[in-house]
Request: fold
Amino acid sequence: MRNFTVLAVFAALSIAATAGRPSVLSPQYVLFNMESAARSMEVSDRVDLGCARIGVNPRATARMMAPKKHMGPHKVAADPEKIKASRVQAYGWNGNGWVEDVLYDYSFDASGNITVELAHDAEGDCSRTVREYNDHGKVTSEETKISSDGVNYKNHRKSEIEYDPILTNVITRKDQWAWLSGNWMPGDCYKRIIERDEKGNITGVAIAVLFNGDYDPTQRLVITYGADGKATEISESILNYDYATGEYFWEQGPKYTDIVWDRTDGQIYDIDDIFIGENRIKSGLYVDSDDLQMEISVEYADDSDAYLVTMLMEEEGISMTATTQYTPLENEGYIAEMKTETMGFTLISIKQEMRFDDWGLMTLQEETIDAYGSGSGYDTVVGIVEYDAEGKPTVYTVTEEYSDVGDEKVSTEHVIRAEYSDYVDVTASVKDLNVSGAAEEYYDLNGIRVNEPASGRIVVTKSGKKIQY
Reply:
């Protein structure tokens, strides 16, 4: 497999549809291709738009799983919000067929969040991950311990996460540690520092990473507001390093100016996140770090999150227009189409489509690219989902087919196979979650299994419930 591992792929399958709307062909992505295409053009009748020169990778974003169609009823009898598979067997492809790889056992809280994940690979190694959530269903802590016998566990990694009190899905701090040489060593730790004015509008956002024991900002976003209380400019800057002087400096990044809003609530924390949600730009001027300017106008649907972005750029007498049309589909799916045109012909056309079933499994991810002078390419990730009589997934098989732009060779890869079983109603009592019929299992706070809990001791059940005896 090229960039897949069974564990990484399976993480996307087992926790599908819990992380919100997937990324799409954002106007930033379109702008990047417009800029790259413009810089590769000569002011003459000859246009050289080799795919490498405009930065197009037909498989760069196709890294998620997708069943192609339902093989059972669309409207399921079982409720995906309440009914969850507590056991999943994952398989990997060995070149000749599917072989067992990792067996997962899950426990859930009443909202369907995974509280305990037990993973057993084919070699006998195990891991146990315990997660805690806040009232908004977001992970606040996660700790993983590993074992070679399924009984004695040792520290492996852990993390703690904090969120903004207003934008409850936005992380403001994430601390991660790895267990090395008997100590917890910090890993990828960062803060998102959000500043607000007296009206509650966000005026600045800084991303600070842990470096030599301190949190140093490496990215800044500044939002300027007009007399009407709405943002007129959004500007990003990145901390860069000058190898000649040996000093760090702030480099101006992209910015939007002269903004007119379709709607806004002042909670702007990401320069890319201004086309869906409560902050939707209607028009403005985009300026990149090299002072390349593009006029932007956006049309929004009245009854959905669909939009059409049109961008116009003029440079050295050449006019270039790019459009991005985003159409939402059911179950968090979407279709996004981007096209860049100049001098009466199309420079590049890209289409992405993603679909999900009622259970959050990706039902299609497809990307096609047509680049002027370089041909076309595509990447399609296809999965087949089999359902039982109630419409619950039982088997999920994923494959990928792709060809590079301008390359007639078609490649096919077997990505993963998963078998789902032991469904439980997460709204039932914790006792009901012990669906295997075996005696309840107890673990101490270090993840070590306890056969007979002592009086006064706090233990954690396999289902994730803390009990003090």
